[in-house]
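User: Can you predict the 3D structure of histidine kinase? Sequence below.
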Amino acid sequence: MGETPALFTGRRWFFPSALLHELDPDAARAGRRPRRTARDWVVDFSSFLLAVVVGATAVEALADNPHVPNELAVVDQLIGALACAAVWLRRRWPLGLAVAMTPVTFVSETAGGAGLIALFTLAVHRPFRSVAWVGGINAALVPLYYWLRPEPDVPYLLIVLFAVLLTVAIVGWGMFVRAKRQLMVSLRDRARRAETEARLRAEQAQRLAREAIAREMHDVLAHRLTLLSVHAGALEFRPDAPPAETARAAGVIRESAHDALQDLREIIGVLRAGESDDTGRPQPTLAAVDALVAESREAGMKVVLNHRVEDPAAVPSSVGRTAYRIAQEGLTNARKHAPGTEVTVTVTGAPGTGLTVCVHNPPPEGEVPPVPGSGQGLIGLTERANLAGGRLEHGPTPQGGFEVRAWLPWR
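Assistant: Sure. Here are the predicted structure tokens for histidine kinase:
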């Protein structure tokens, strides 16, 4: 449902019902008539009282005019009284009342105040086209009216000019009020759109942050949990292993679980703090690829590292971190989908030419059971590489193996 702004909610009595109706989209779509506010009642009563006062002034003028018969004056007053009562209908039928008042004010002098109020209401509530037609007809009838009913104490041209200027002023005032209301409605709509856009931007930023954290959790925890799975599987299938080997596997499981918890704590800390690099341990860079390969070798993998970057510390931290995540994901995938094979990790590049990371493994021996959630890490890595301004390609090789190759800019 549409919500009225707080400015109007606390002071609804102070604003016109038509303005509140335009600010309530639900009421406008449903076609419900706006309820009169306290301000509307005050304005309507004041308009009725003004029409009566103008009519009473005209009654005195009729009594002093010798050219008007007494019977005609009585009829004029009766028509004027009905016109003043019709002022209460100006909000419901502004155009119809203004059109009806045009001939009424032409034949009744006491209905002049009600006619001007009807013309003002039309200018406030209807477009300029309707106002121009009705106001133009009223202004065109002024010379004829005063030619048929001349004022004995005022020159003809002066009274005609005054009446036309009064009609134009009433129309101008009503159009000014209408423009002011439309401005308030447009400002409210603009504020509503700004609030909607801000909410959408906040939701998009929240979604992007969640996606980034999910990617980071996958990249970090998948590697640790794969090590846990490998050594836990070895203990399961080798219950008769020597105590030293069992103790070594248990130590790796303990260290991997500790590192996984530490990484998870860092990621959750980033989520809470809303920062990326100021919490937890230092983020991995290209120099940490050697430690990553050594950790994989300790887990029982066969890994060959071809590190051809002369100064890994010179690589920008964002590029080095992305290269590390690519190598980490490649080793994790090889461990899951091609266990027992020899994996080759190649890192080459130089400033100006870019950094290339390639992880290749031959086809596994025998059938490998499918792993749930396969491919999600590569999707995240592709997006990560694109955000860094590089590209990532992955897929099977002609020899039946699998290769992940990425190029990252190094300026």
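The chain has two domains: 6-199, 286-411. Residues 1-14, 274-280 have pLDDT under 50 and may be disordered.
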